[in-house]
Predict the 3D structure of the following.
Amino acid sequence: MSRIGKKPVIIPAGVKVSLSGTTMKVQGPGGTLTRELSAGVLITVEADRINVDQDPQSDNTAALHGLTRTLIANMVEGVTKGFVRVLDINGVGYRADARGTTLNLLLGFSHPIDYLLPEGVSAEVEKQTKITLKGIDKELVGAVAAKIRSFRSPEPYKGKGIKYAEERIIRKAGKTGKK
């Protein structure tokens, strides 16, 4: 049995949770999230907590028990606090600019990259080299950050490119001269 799945999800004040069939809807001060959950997991919503249990009649519930609990906990945290992902840009001439829902990136290519942010994710750019992504859906914020990083992932020799703020790039030694 999953240790994470056993822990109940506490519902903070100001958050409403509704469950109809396998669809869970969480409303809070940050917005509303809806997710279709697995049918093999039993979910009970009480006044101040959500409990997730395995269905004894289903075979694959052990694999989905902790996952389902974590997805629900991320929905509750997202509508209360939200999620933030920070990207750093390293390189001469590399910079970013946020214009409404469009992120304009200059990454050393012959053309600028205009990335249209999906609904539910906002971007702020500080000093043209630090991108802060914010949203209530953890999965969406992470996917947008990974997509932006994929435009110019960091290289191991000089560390040029886009990296996560907490990411550490392992550097390689460059070429050595003849002896």
Remarks:
- The two ends are 62 Å apart (CA to CA).
- The chain has a mean pLDDT of 86.
